[in-house]
């Protein structure tokens, strides 16, 4: 598998708690990225964050809600300091 150079980078992954979003999260984390997983399913988010290890954020929200997205963006910037990558995988 090719390695991506994601050291020092932060990524937001919508729909990041399961399926394709989680697979992308695993790949980015293995490549050194810090992650903010966004999903509606709090239980799946907690399991995904635990599986990925420390240093990652999990935010429960509905990406169709402008106020939820604004709050998640603020939380991500507070925790990770920046957003370099956005993966839109919410379905």
Describe this structure in words.
With 91 residues, the protein is α/β, with parallel strands linked by helices. Helices cover 42% and strands 21% of the residues. It contains three helices and four strands. A four-stranded parallel beta sheet has the order 3-2-1-4, with helices on both faces. Helix 1 (19-30) links the parallel strand 1 (10-14) and strand 2 (34-39). The chain is globular. It starts with 9 loop residues before the first strand and ends with a strand. The model has no long low-confidence stretch (mean pLDDT 95).
Q: Which features would summarize this protein structure in a list?
A:
91 residues, four-stranded parallel beta sheet
How is this fold's topology laid out?
Elements: E1 10-14, H1 19-30, E2 34-39, H2 42-52, E3 57-60, H3 66-80, E4 85-88
Parallel strand pairs: 1-2, 1-4, 2-3
Q: Order of SSEs, N→C?
A: EHEHEHE
User: Overall mean pLDDT score?
Assistant: 95
Q: Work out the number of β strands.
A: 4
The low-confidence runs, each spanning 5 or more residues with pLDDT under 50, are none
What fraction, in percent, of the residue positions are helical?
40-55%
For the biggest β-sheet, the strand order reads 3-2-1-4
Q: Please count the helical segments.
A: 3
Task: Please outline the major beta sheet.
Answer: 4 strands, parallel
The proportion of strand residues reads 15-25%
What general form does the structure show?
globular
Class computed from helices, strands and strand pairing:
alpha/beta
Distance between the termini: 26 Å
């Amino acid at each position: 598998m090719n390695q991506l150079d994601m050291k020092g980078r932060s990524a937001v992954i919508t729909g990041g708690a399961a399926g394709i979003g989680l697979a992308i999260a695993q790949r980015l984390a293995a490549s050194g990225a810090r992650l903010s997983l966004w999903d509606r399913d709090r239980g799946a988010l907690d399991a995904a964050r635990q599986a990925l290890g420390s240093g990652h954020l999990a935010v429960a929200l509905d990406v169709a809600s402008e106020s939820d997205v604004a709050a998640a963006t603020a939380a991500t910037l507070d925790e990770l300091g920046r957003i370099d990558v956005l993966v839109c995988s919410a379905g």
